[in-house]
Amino acid sequence: MSQTVKSSGMGSTYAVYGAILAIAVVQVIVAVSMGPSLWRMLALAVIQAYLAVMFFMHLRDEKPTLRLALIPGTLFVLVMMNMIWADSFRLAVMKPFAK
Amino acid sequence: MSSVDVAIEPAVAAPAIHSGGVVMEERPFGIPSSKLVMWLFIISDACTFGAVLFAYGYIRNSAADWPQVFEAASIWNSLLMTFILVSTSLTVLFAVRAAQAEDRAGAFRWTMITAAGGLLFTLLHIREWLNLIGQGARLFQNPWGAPMFGAAFFSITGLHMAHVVGGVVALVVVGLSYKAGRYTARHIEIWALYWHFVDLVWMFVVPLVYLLNMKR
Fold first, then answer.
1. Domain residue spans in chain B?
2. Would strands B22-25 and B16-19 be described as parallel, antiparallel, or unpaired?
3. Domain range holding A21?
4. A6-59 tens-digit pLDDT
5. Cβ neighbours of A25 in B, within 8 Å
6. Which of A14, A45, A97 lies nearest to residue B204, judging by beta carbons?
7. Which ipTM value was assigned to this complex?
8. How open is the CA angle B165-B167-B171, to the nearest 5 degrees?
9. Do B82 and A24 lie within an 8 Å CB cutoff?
10. Looking at domain B33-213, which CATH architecture does it have?
11. Predicted TM-score (pTM) of this structure
12. In terms of CA atoms, which chain B residue is nearest residue A72?
């Protein structure tokens, strides 16, 4: 276990730290200048999350079996939650005086 | 228990390791069970946060007059909070490295710095809450529009803040116990994983809750 932290080295850690902060600033700039589009915001957040999971949490240094056990199942649950959107838009249409 | 009972698989099926004269199957994920438990907790908690954010999206979509309330000061505050939380992810990594090098004083120092960062983050967040409450935001009413805005904002950020406070308490306990020699570097590494997860959740809260509801 201890080798997982050491093998990555701190150089990449500093780079990831800087990249995550830079993306956070870019998010604000994009939101202010272009408007806070859901997809733009989400895409940048996913990049940040990927960097954090792979480098800060060192998942990239773990065995592939662990990545296989954790990632697809979690993504499956999160993707299946998208079923709610159709119903939420139906409510907007049925609501009196809705736009 | 005989040695036959615990020899789960024959040596030909997978490389076996010998522990105390007992032949055991190799760990399938190559990590200690305590670390695996933390990973399992993290993915279940990720689904919890996912569900809360989806629920927020649902009521936001179904409301005709969802308020856009966050002014520049709130956005700057959220950016400062991001800087603090991401920086604590770095300091907790320093703590892990120090603990792995058997530097007990260094590991304790970095763990406490991380906990202090978490505390500062919480104070900034409470200031943000008080600011909104001062403007009239409540759980089920506000002066701007859809009454569920308060419920969504306070429940998402409150759940995250509860995780930060829980992490601060855990880091203090683990840091003190590690310094006293009761805990090992593994304990710090496992709680560092949790702390990174708290950081990760914030990366979604800022754009989805703050930036999407920015005053324009």
1. 1-30, 33-213
2. antiparallel
3. 2-94
4. 445 688 999 999 999 999 999 999 999 998 899 999 999 999 999 999 999 999
5. 79
6. A45
7. 0.87
8. 120
9. yes
10. Up-down Bundle (1.20)
11. 0.88
12. B43
